[in-house]
Design brief:
With 254 residues, this protein is mainly α. It is 67% helix and 2% strand.
Length: 254
């Protein structure tokens, strides 16, 4: 295990990224434990931070951690990998605190224990997934394909522009069709972008509201098919995801 860690993480320069990943997981675990203790009115837990009656949300502490550690990462020389890793750890902790209240930032109101609050968990899961792929050495195809210099010689990088624009177009269509996860992971696995762009949109997506409305050719038929597919395939997946999120982060108020 130590050899694998040294070869795959340390020697590849991914130690700060690993520490960011670990700090994010630990920070999320701690803050979710804390809010669940507060929600359960556990007497021995400190509770909310309320100086002068003002409830200071933990997103504030997250922003402070991210600013201070971000400045440290930029200021510390590259050769001081250990110190950069420590700063990256705190950047991960701050990221977890911010993402845990992402829904509050999005809605500009306290929706933490509501259905809208699930958006925070979705956002954190997305960042964890992307960071995990990067740790495994999987790079976005945009980074791999767009290389203006090869072996010290200028490369004809402009040949990469048309396929990159085409891929970005597929990604935009996929996201507009309501397939956020497919669009996100598609930057690492381009085939997903093609599949997501071709297949039917989700019935509540912007694409469906635009293309499947009455008056459009086969619009009503496509909307009915999308709703059947959503009920048959998507609904069980969403229920499983909600169950898993409730297990980890606590269920919203009913």
């Amino acid at each position: 295990m130590a050899g694998w860690f040294s070869q795959r993480i340390v020697e590849t320069g991914r130690l700060p990224l690993f520490c960011f990943f670990a700090g994010m997981l630990v920070g999320f675990g701690f803050i979710r434990f804390s809010v669940r203790m507060i929600r359960a009115n556990v007497r021995w837990w400190p509770g909310n931070v309320t100086p002068g009656g003002l409830h200071v949300h933990h997103v504030v502490f997250g922003v402070v951690f991210m600013i201070l550690s971000g400045i440290a990462i930029l200021a510390i020389p590259d050769e001081l990998v250990g110190w950069r890793a420590i700063a990256a750890t705190w950047f991960g902790v701050g990221t977890a605190l911010v993402l845990d209240e992402f829904a509050l930032i999005l809605h500009l109101e306290d929706v933490y224990w509501t259905e809208q609050g699930r958006t925070s968990i979705d956002a954190l899961f997305a960042v964890v997934a992307v960071t995990g792929l990067l740790l495994l050495g999987v790079h976005p195809f945009l980074v791999e394909d767009f290389q203006p210099v090869v072996n010290g010689e200028p490369a004809a990088w402009w040949w990469a522009i048309p396929p990159l624009l085409l891929s970005l177009g597929f990604a935009a269509i996929t996201v507009l069709k309501g397939k956020i996860w497919t669009g996100l992971l598609g930057f690492f696995l381009p085939l997903l972008l093609i599949v997501g762009a071709i297949r039917l949109a989700r019935p509540a997506s912007p694409w469906a509201r635009w293309r499947y409305r009455p008056g459009r050719r086969r619009g009503a038929e496509k909307l009915a098919r999308a709703r059947r597919r959503e009920f048959r395939l998507r609904t069980p997946v969403v229920r499983a995801k909600d169950w898993f999120q409730d297990l980890i982060a606590g269920s919203p108020d009913r």
